[in-house]
Amino acid sequence: MFSKDKWNEILESLTSNVFRTLLTAFGVFWGIFILVILLAAGNGLENGVKQGFSGIATNSMFMWTMPTTKAYDGLPKGRRYNFKIGDVQAIKENVNGIEYVSPRNQLGGFGGANNVTRGLKSGAYNVYGDYPEIIKQEPMNIIKGRFINQNDIEQKRKVAVIGTGVQKGLYDIGEEVLGSYIKIQGVNFMVIGMYEKTTSTRGDLEEAQKQIFVPFSAYSQAFNMGNVVGWMAITAKDGYSITNLKSDVFDVVKKRHRINPEDDNAVGNFDLYEQYTKISGLFLALDAVAYLVGILVLFSGVIGISNIMLIVVKERTKEIGVRRALGATPWQIRGQILFESVFLTIIAGMAGIIFATLVIFVLNQFLGASASPETMFINPSVDYITVLIALCILIFAGLLAGFIPAQNAIRVKPVEALRTE
C-alpha cells in the first residue's frame, strides 16, 4: 500500500548525505552496466559468427576418400579407392534420416594454372560438377538466369553457372553473360546463370565468388571421370543429427568398397554440424562468464549499499527506538530497511541499464554504417528476458544488501535506543 510518509522517510534518509549515497549507488550502477555490456558484446560476436553460417545447411558433413590403414578381405593397407555414383543411392537407401547426398567433382582453383578461358581472357577458378541439390546445402543467390536442374543432369548439358568474380575476370563491363560461352580446359560450356554469395564456409568471401558450377553428368563426360565421385556433401533431415548418422554412412561406404569396418581413417570427413554445435556451446559459456563477471562486480556494489545501510541504521538508532516504543513490530522495522535498500539498488541499477542501452544504441549506429558481409561483430544487443533477469538480480541484490542492516535494526532495544545521544 502506498504511504506518503514512508516515501518521504526513504527520500530524506537517502538525501541526507547525497555524495555518500551517489558513491555507494555507483557500485551497483557499474556492476549492472558491465553485465549488460558483456552480454550485448557476446550477442554481437555470436551474431557475427552465425552470419557466416546463414543459409548453409549446418546439419551437414563433407566426405572424401583416404588411403586405407588396415588390410581387409585380401586387400593390403594403403590401398586407394574412389567413391562411385552408386554410393549416393546406396547411402540414401540404407541410412534413415538423410535429406540430401550431393556427389561432387572438382578441378582447378585459386593458385593453380589458368583453366577457364573466354576469348583472350583467362583465369584460374574452382569448377564443380554438381547436382541441383547443392544449392540447398550451400548459400547462393542467383542474380541472373537460373541454377542447374535435373534436366541438365539427365541430358548431360554443357551449361555453367558462374560467380560474380568470374564475370569480372572474363567479361567486359556491361557485356551480357547469359547465353555466352566459356571454355573449361578446352571444353565449351554455355553460361545459364550467375550467382553471388554473401557467406562462405571457408572464410574467404572474395574467392567464393570465383567458382563455376556445371552439371555433374556433363562434368564426368567432358573430363573423363566416368562414374567416379571426388567427394560428397551430405545433409540430415530435420530432427536428425548428421553427427549421429555419419557412422552409418561410413559403414555403407566401407561395405561397398571392401574396407575394414574398424578402419576409421579410410573415410575423411568434416562435420559442419559438430563444429556449429561447438560454437553454440562456446557462446553459452561466454554468456555464463558475462553473468559471473557482472554479478561479481555487482556484488561489490551490494557490499557498499550494505555498509551505507549499516551507517543509516546506526544514525537512526534513536528513531528506531521511538518507533519500537510506539508499537512498531520487528517486521515493520525490518521491512523499512529492506525497502530502502531495494529502492536504492533498483534506482542505481536501472540507471546502469539505461546508460548501457544508450552505449549499445550508439555502437549499433556505428556498426550499421560500416557493416559488410564479412563483419564478425553484428547487432550487439540484449533482449527483454535479459533485462528481466537483470531486474531480478537487482531485487535480490537489494534484499541481500539490506538483510544484515535490517537484522541489526530489530535488535535495537527501545530503552537503550532512547538513551542514545
UniProtKB/TrEMBL annotation:
Residues 292-413 form the ABC3 transporter permease C-terminal domain. Residues 21-248 form the MacB-like periplasmic core domain. It comes from the Bacteria. Keywords: Cell membrane, Membrane, Transmembrane, Transmembrane helix. It is found in: Cell membrane. The keyword Transmembrane applies. Pfam families: FtsX, MacB_PCD. It is a multi-pass membrane protein. One of its GO terms (cellular component) is plasma membrane. The chain crosses the membrane at residues 21-41, 288-313, 342-364, 384-404. GO terms for molecular function: transmembrane transporter activity. Its main location: membrane. Coiled coil: none annotated. Belongs to the ABC-4 integral membrane protein family. PANTHER family: ABC TRANSPORTER PERMEASE YTRF (PTHR30572:SF4), MEMBRANE COMPONENT OF TRANSPORTER-RELATED (PTHR30572). This is ABC transporter permease. It comes from Mesohalobacter halotolerans. The lineage of its organism: Bacteria, Pseudomonadati, Bacteroidota, Flavobacteriia, Flavobacteriales.
